Amino acid sequence: MFALARKAVAAYRRDRQLPVAALAVKIYNNATAYALARVHLRALTHVGPRPRCFGRPHVDNAGRLVVGSDFAVGCAFGTVHLATGHRGAIEIGDAVTVNYGTSISASTRVRIGNRVKIGPYCVLSDTDLPLPLAAEGADGARPIEIGDDVWLAGRVTVLPGVRVGRGAVVAAGSVVTSDIPDGAIASGAPAKVLRVVRVRGGEHAPVAPMSGTRLVPNATAETGDAAVEAS
Amino acid sequence: MLPWKRAEQLLRGGLATLRTRAVLHACDVVKDGAFVAGVPFVDNRGRIEIGEGSSISSLPVRSHLATRPGASLVIGDRVRIAHGAAIYVASEVVVGDDVAVGPMSMILDVDFHEIGDRSASGTPRPIRIGRGVRLAVGCVVLRGVVIGDGARIGPHSVVARSIPPGVYAEGVPARPVNA
Prior knowledge:
The structure holds 2 protein chains of 2 kinds.
Chain A lengths: L1 H14 L4 H21 L5 E2 L4 E3 L3 E4 L2 E4 L4 E3 L6 E4 L4 E4 L4 E2 L4 E4 L2 E4 L4 E2 L4 E3 L18 E3 L4 E2 L4 E2 L4 E2 L4 E2 L4 E2 L7 E4 L4 E5 L27 H6 L2
Parallel strand pairs in A: 1-4, 2-5, 3-6, 4-7, 5-8, 6-9, 7-10, 8-11, 9-12, 10-13, 11-14, 12-15, 13-16, 14-17, 15-18, 17-19
Antiparallel strand pairs in A: 19-20
Chain B lengths: L2 H21 L5 E2 L4 E3 L3 E4 L2 E4 L4 E3 L6 E4 L4 E4 L4 E2 L4 E4 L2 E4 L4 E2 L4 E3 L18 E3 L4 E2 L4 E2 L4 E2 L4 E2 L4 E2 L8 E3 L4 E3 L2
Parallel strand pairs in B: 1-4, 2-5, 3-6, 4-7, 5-8, 6-9, 7-10, 8-11, 9-12, 10-13, 11-14, 12-15, 13-16, 14-17, 15-18, 17-19
Antiparallel strand pairs in B: 19-20
């Protein structure tokens, strides 16, 4: 409850310049998103606190689908498809946001870290074709791992067996065919690393702020988690 | 398998078949074992044939099958078409058996406009996709292309020229690569 209040205060501070009508629409959208999320995400194995669904995602959960706290799904212009096969598992961390038209499909395992942002029309599938079409018990399935604080822009495709490092940014329209190192900025089809930025803070300090909060500058490894919560 | 599990499986299979027939009612021929996930957009003014055990996904983005009058789209057996695929046919498109089409791909046998006269609706040229071809994510197949049997096309490629059988091709335009 405190976390929700803190998020509301941070969101108000960020959005107080907006016209009253726009603010009202935003509050209405968020309130409905909070209210309906538990209904829309009922097929998931576990959902953390404060999930939000803007619109209705499509969930086909035959295996294990676990989501951390503050999960947000946007389905403005198309749905989000979360699908697991009988032996598949999708493990999503805290404060992850997924935008419309994205398909996440696991025949073996797709692991997504904390504070990951996934843009519209992304494809994350651990088989060549995403799930309703993947042959059951497909041998070709190779697990995908997305590190903490990764930002996948619009229309990014992550191919099977790829690991995207912590704090990496993948530019719009890229196809990730091989592993991306920590803190890299990658672009193109196939994605090439343009440069590597220093991952901020220590080993466990977050790089990106959670939605509705902002990072306090000079966060250190010890205060990293506290810094993210502070508004 | 437990009998009630088997019964449930049969019931689900039957319902899926009925649903597929309803969703694809605009197609001329839908053979046994065809399967749709979600609701693809079918605008059939010519002829569409869908082979045995073929599946079309429309989750999360709708796929699109459209034919002009007199045009024909023939999809072979065990073809798998992923979500967001757009297949537009103005003359003839033949998709061979066991083809896999990746998400967000486009197969268009007409350019819709001419370079000289933008109001003219381009000249269509038929597309032929061989048996066992695999198109990866986001491929675009343009008019007049013949893709040989067993060829594989890399992600986000534009197939503007014909591809010989059995090779791996990628890029814009797609060219065979030694892989």
